[in-house]
Amino acid sequence: MPVRRRGKRYLALRAEGNVPKDGRELEEIILKALLSLFGQDGASRADLKLIEYDGEEGVGIVRCSHKHMGLVRAAIASVVEHEGRPLAIHVVDVSGTLKALRKRLPSRAL
Amino acid sequence: MRKFADVHLACPFQDVGEFRALLERARKMGFHVVSVPLHPGLKARELSRLKEIASEAGLDLATRVDLAPENRPMLLSSLRRLRRKFEFIGVLCQNKEVARVAARDRRVDFLMFPLEPKKRYLDRSVAELASGSNCALEIDLMPIFKLPLETRIKLLARLRDEVALAKKYGVPVVICSGAPEPIMMRRPRELAYLATILDLGFEDALDALSKTPLSMLERNRAKLDPSFVAPGIRVVRRGRDCP
Question: Taking the model in full, what pTM does it have?
Fold first, then answer.
């Protein structure tokens, strides 16, 4: 029996303030926010995955479930600090494919 | 396209440069209208200068004053003094008496409550009064995430009850960032997604950031216009030829 493909959404992010040094740190921050707001159930449904991250620029791309993108965006917006210093993560663009997102990205900035 | 308003940017500013930078940031984030709580003693000339700066930054500034009265007489005297001067008036209700008077008064635009769950006085009677006077419930989202975990959990639960109560009694809900510093400002859609955790649908959350505050602003501007007489009545022309 064919398994239905789960829809994805790719979110382009831009961090400011105490910017995470690497992708692992960024993923941890978002996951922590997801867990804090929606618990393990919400975090598992969100199906979060880091695609790429540039620690110097503070820009990156994460992938999440299309159905539960709202949870991820709410969690990202709720991040206000990291290691006791202010941090903001903004979603600058959203796309259904990585290719389209990368194409649009240079023209989108905060 | 929707126009968004952040009617409570709580970032303090020292000079015109800081104020301009704040507005430019809000513009880049996608807001069209912003409101910053101003000092009640500001003169009309200073207010119009701030509006000019905002329009140079491509934004519409709605003048706003926040009151934190301790009792009924203080609230009423402040409203008498300031209503004709500012486009928005927010009242921080620190006790039940003030909450009830503010909710009943048509001159109050926003009902605000402290961030302590036990000091939020929006109950059924206040909601009923507010629905009759078109007073909106203001929810500042960003300061919530600065609170200690336990308080935050209790406050989010309380806010959910308040939103449900507001829906039941038809009290308009206005969502704003309430950002105490520029780094805590968020884009309109980010705020809308964040507001969904208060059991507000995404479309309702977008309305709480656009339609609701913008219609309140339009109504208040019409009232402050010198030609305004009463709702639906305004002076179109003055002269001897008018019967």
Answer: 0.91
